[in-house]
Automatic annotation (TrEMBL):
It comes from Spongisporangium articulatum. The chain crosses the membrane at residues 48-70, 82-103, 135-158, 164-188, 200-224, 321-342. The keyword Signal does not apply. Keywords: Membrane, Transmembrane, Transmembrane helix. This is ABC transporter permease. Pfam families: ABC2_membrane_2.
Amino acid sequence: MSETLGTGRPVDDGPPLLRGPGTWSVTWGGVRTLTVLELRQRIRSARWVIVVGFWALTVGALSSLIRWAAMTSQTERDSAGALMYGTVLLLVLSLASLVSPALSATSVNGDRSAGVLAIMQSTLLSPAELALGKLLAAWTSALVLFAVTLPFLFWAFLEGGTSGGRFVITTVLTAFTLLVVCAVGLMFSALTARTSTSAALTYLTVAFLGVGLPLVFVLGLAIVRSDDTFRQQYRAYGSDECQLELVTESRAHTEKTWWLLAPSPYVIVSDAAPARHDLGDPLSIIRSAVREARLGPPIDEDYCSESRDEDRAAERDAQPAVWPLGVAVDGLVLVGSVVVTVRRLRSPSRALPRGSRVA
């Protein structure tokens, strides 16, 4: 209540201005509202049905070829089944990592260009609800594509050589990888004005996590090489006696750089899957290679021991698991991407990308 000038009569100033929600205030109703809205827009598009159908046909055809190749090259059914499962899983992980960025990398800047984002920012939805709703919608779409491939993974599972625990663990970690990819795409969508730029940055980031880090590890082998002097036992040609001598040679100390491999989705999924030492499937091969890198070169070389390979395998298995570190790093990427997205969705914004429209 206040007084008008000269009359002394109190007048009503009207209701107080509504204050918008805080930046980080989150309610399930707000997140759910935006998620449903985003999903309805995707489902209404005929392109979504075409993408899902083409995705199913592609994975089905490739799975059939992989099964034929596995059954032809392997004599034992369990070995062929494990080979098929590991190959199909890595194929699905690769294809999903290529498709998932398209589900989120244009979410924010696309709405901003169309003038839709400003309308949503003027509602009572908080920036955190906007970010989480868009992320959940993109992740749900990615999970739909992943769910389409589950029958083919289950087919490979039924071929034998794969335990139920391996099936569950790899499925959960693949879904987690898709969530990280969607979050990265959403972050670049909020940071850049052009959808082509955000999509390109997302693909580059996904490629760096998937194959870029292993490539950096390989290129870094020259840096961690050093001349080591160690004892070597061996049998000379034509002799049954074991000889011992000191040898100096250059060896790569991969125990210093193995951690570069940990954030790769392929390493996370492979290392977390229970190993099958009797089967040469892709998951077990990657798992053994990463733990061999973590172990580094042996202190001494004993070529006379008949159990040399078994002893080395036991040392590899005694190494701590690599995948928890990878999940932790990717989890930080996930959280960091969400935080950046929320800060970029604050209204009024302190700065907009050049060329952006407000409404």
